Amino acid sequence: MAVIAKKQKMTDYENMSDEQLVQASLENQDCFYYLMKRYEPRILRYSKRITNVSEEESADILQEIFIKVYRNLNGFNQKLKFSSWIYRIAHNEIINQYHKKKSYSAMISLNIEDDDVNNMARLVRDTFDVQDDYIGRENIEKVRKALKELPDKYREILILRFFEDKSYDEISHILRKPAGTVATLINRAKSKFRKIAEHHKLESLI
Questions:
Q1: Closest alpha carbon to 92 in 72, 117, 78
Q2: C-alpha dist (Å) from residue 154 to 57, 128, 129, 141, 185
Q3: Where do the domains of the chain lie, and which CATH numbers do they carry?
């Protein structure tokens, strides 16, 4: 019976909203495990998408992010979206880590995996106004190259929008920029991406 009760309690926590879990974590630190479990894969993936680090370094960064998240839970505004809040902490921690090493841009390698093909297709479709969902292996590499050649601020905002599927409002909160500025940056980023992609002859292969 005790095992059944424990499983039931676990299910209850897993079904909670982010905001409910934050409140539960403030009352019982053991509940923070469920927030970590929910966000660990996402934050790790985000970190790998914009950095060039080993698995060990990724794990260290992830640990620092969650330490900061836990220490600042009291400061979380329940009116805001938790996912945007934790991404902002992750974003800041990643940049801080790379400022300790040579430079942020020097560390970027864009570890986009094959699972991100659909996200690449979405970016290409949105940029070139095409309907085709298919991106071949050759095009995948061309998209990677085009993204890597973008300035940091444009590359990251495209990753947040198309790979992390964040809304304009969420990106505004993550980067601490007005929504209008985010919209402008995304449009400029897509314009830059288009020019670079055309240089790589990406548009002729869609």
A1: 72
A2: 25, 17, 19, 19, 7
A3: 2-107 (1.10.1740.10), 114-205 (1.20.140.160)
Q: What is the rounded distance in angstroms from the CA atom of residue 71 to the CA atom of residue 164?
A: 25
Query: Tens of pLDDT along 124-150?
Result: 777 776 555 556 666 777 777 888 888
**The pair of three-digit structure tokens given for residue 171, joined into one six-digit string:** 């990106």
Neighbours of 154 (CB within 10 A): 20
Largest CA distance in the chain: 65
Q: Specify whether the CB–CB gap between 192 and 151 falls below 8 A.
A: yes
CA distances from residue 121 to 124, 142, 143 in whole angstroms, order as listed: 5, 12, 9
pLDDT tens across 32-83, in order?
999 999 999 999 988 888 777 777 888 888 999 999 999 999 999 888 899 9
Give the residue, 115 or 168, on which the prediction is more confident: 168
